[in-house]
Amino acid sequence: MFETTYDVIVVGGGHAGCEAAHAAAKLGAKTLLITMNMQTIAQMSCNPAMGGVAKGQIVREIDALGGLSGIITDETMIQFKLLNRSKGPAMWSPRAQSDRMRFAEAWKLALERTENLDFWQDMVNDLIIEDGKIIGVKTQMGIEIKAKSVILTNGTFLNGTIHIGDKQFGGGRSGERNATGLTEALLALGFESGRMKTGTPPRVDGRSLDYSKMEEQPGDENPLKFSYTNTENLQKQRSCYITYTNPEVHEKLEQGFEKSPMFAGRIKGLGPRYCPSIEDKITRFKERTRHQLFIEPEGWDTCEIYVNGFSTSLPENVQYQALKLVPGFENVKIFKPGYAIEYDFFPPTQLRLSLETKQIENLYFAGQINGTTGYEEAACQGLMAGINAKRKLDGVDPFILKRNEAYIGVLIDDLVTKGTNEPYRMFTSRAEYRLLLRQDNADIRLTKLGYELGLANEDRLVRLEEKLNYIEKFKKYLADKSALPELVNPLLASVGSKELKQKNKLKAIISRPHITILALDHLPILQEFYEANGKDLESIEQVEIDIKYSGYIEREKENAKKLQKLENIRIPTQFDYATIASLSNEAKSKLGESRPETIAQASRISGVSPADISVLLVYMGR
Fold this sequence. Notes:
Elements: E1 5-11, H1 15-26, E2 31-35, E3 49-51, H2 55-65, H3 69-76, E4 77-83, E5 93-98, H4 100-112, E6 117-121, E7 124-130, E8 133-139, E9 144-152, E10 161-164, E11 167-170, H5 182-188, E12 194-200, E13 203-205, E14 215-217, E15 240-244, H6 247-254, H7 278-284, E16 292-297, E17 304-308, H8 316-323, E18 334-336, E19 339-345, E20 363-365, H9 375-393, H10 407-418, H11 442-453, H12 458-480, E21 482-483, H13 485-494, E22 504-505, H14 506-510, H15 524-533, H16 537-548, H17 550-567, H18 585-594, H19 599-603, H20 610-619
Parallel strand pairs: 1-2, 1-9, 2-6, 9-20
Antiparallel strand pairs: 3-5, 4-5, 7-8, 8-9, 10-11, 10-19, 12-19, 13-17, 13-18, 14-15, 15-16, 16-17, 21-22
């Protein structure tokens, strides 16, 4: 392999690195994955779960495009929940509790089965650059490996420092060394870097817990899945549990604050706003007498438990004494303490929308190196970097998802256009077209694109076409067929809806609040359709959403069309904003620094006003 010039080298074997390596290799690139430890590929460094609010949508988008995260989650999950069912469909978010060991094993085996993919265990500590273009990497062993493009997915390992109380030591995560040298190499090339912080809670022995003092949280009665392929639905599930802290717990934690690296100022990096440590919670929310803790099993067979909600960097003895005061934890045994970790990141405004760096050609960044947090956010960046590295080598335009096409598009546009000074986490509120970007329609939005790229196979396309045909046929049927009042009125009365005086179209009845298609299953007219066409629950749900929210969906589509006009107006790479007298000084500075690729992207940069955009449109001949 040392004599081979690879098409793509992926540095790092986390969630971003796995998706990047798989995508590049599957598209035909001769790919090498370099990781510091072959046994920790796809390690779930924090909680053993995939998905969640907006994150679940991202996993389904990765799957629709032909990535592996959804399939591997389905194969290794121990519980499934569709979150936010009480809210509108734009908020519904799938989440799976995973078997940590089996998840990592399944990823490793899947990558080993991927053609065009080689592996090397080593640390990359330098890059080989020639005429502003990357041509390879140097490793800690002193080996030079040549490549046409390189994707860096270093996670929390770049100069990582672990904090537990007043102890601190180098590490990329518990029990593993950090990565050194690469940050310094990038800084020497003119990149800017910063520091971020994240944390994790203690892992405890489930055999030492008293679950009778906790609230059981079972999975969904009819669990769904992430992948649009033929992965199996769960037949059995493991429950999670909920318990709470109390004033005694808070008091015990506060006794250790003097040794807290966060309060003592030893931690300089900003942590994730929406996943604060337990010490941060009791400081910021003094009025609260308790905080929720989710007790999450780490797998089918292990007794190891993840204490979600108790992220901390306090001394290990303080963690232990405080946990013993939590209901159900009176006899707790800790496997390993919680800790905080600081690491280097590179502000993502230094990237193009393809995730290629602006400074060095054919060098890509993906994952936490870009300032994001979360497996899902990392995985989707890796997927896009892998795709675009191969497309650049093939001499074709990069694959860019727009904000109205995918949460992946929202995430990358946010990072590249706005940057981030704290760990970026995806939320549904970040998307202005979230009713279009639902978890149930990711295949409709993206599978054809994945097929055209060469990632999604023909079976996926056939499944999609069958689903679309079923949906259109069912919609037409509901619009044409009517129901008799005597068959529908008891249901309408039970939900407080106005009763029918004459027969009415099924579509009109379904458009009413609190009326679902499945609640009308008793109607012979619906049974007739099912007998002829089958009962596809996923497609039926899609039809119901389209009927109930048709007005809102059409409005968002119209707004997206207006935005698309601006997306299509490209700005020359070396456009000189300083020569335009009508632009505000702030706009000249921000636009010159960010180098947006389109007018739409320019409009989302903080400090660029609508008046500035109007001026640019004039200069672009529009």
